[in-house]
Amino acid sequence: MASLRDIKTRIASTKKTQQITRAMEMVSAAKLNRAESNAKSYIPYTEKLRSVVASIAAGNNGSLKHPMLQSREVKKTGYLVITADSGLAGGYNNNVLRNVQDTIEDRHSSKEEYTVIVVGKVGVSHFRKRDMPIAEQTTELPDQ
User: Fold this and answer.
1) What are 134's strand-pairing partners?
2) Which residues, including other chains, have CB under 8 Å from residue 21's CB and lie 6 or more apart?
3) I need a labelling partner for 98 at 20 to 30 A (CA). Which of 32, 51, 58, 63 fits?
4) What DSSP letter does each residue of 35-49 carry, written as one string?
């Protein structure tokens, strides 16, 4: 049976662990709030860009000849996959990679029909292990 000193030490250790966990949660919440406010600051720009592109596409009664506005056959599909480099985002990474993997398996029969653009070490290692075509990869991006 454990002595009184061992029990007290264990209780103190548990309390310290809880305190550290709360501090980590507060830091993560602050980072998330900062990221959300940064994302929301782009909304006016996005709306204006959308209206400009829509007005260009609708202008001249369809007589506008721009390569990006012409319909053409889809020869290759690109998938942009954003995963974490490391950290406590296991559930997110797994869900994203599973969704992309299922989509590719459903829509494509060969590797020549698609390519992947990957952000994050987790995604890069996932697609390399499965010998899937990676067009571009970016890792070790800062939090900001």
Assistant:
1) 116
2) none
3) 32
4) HHHHHHHTHHHHHHH
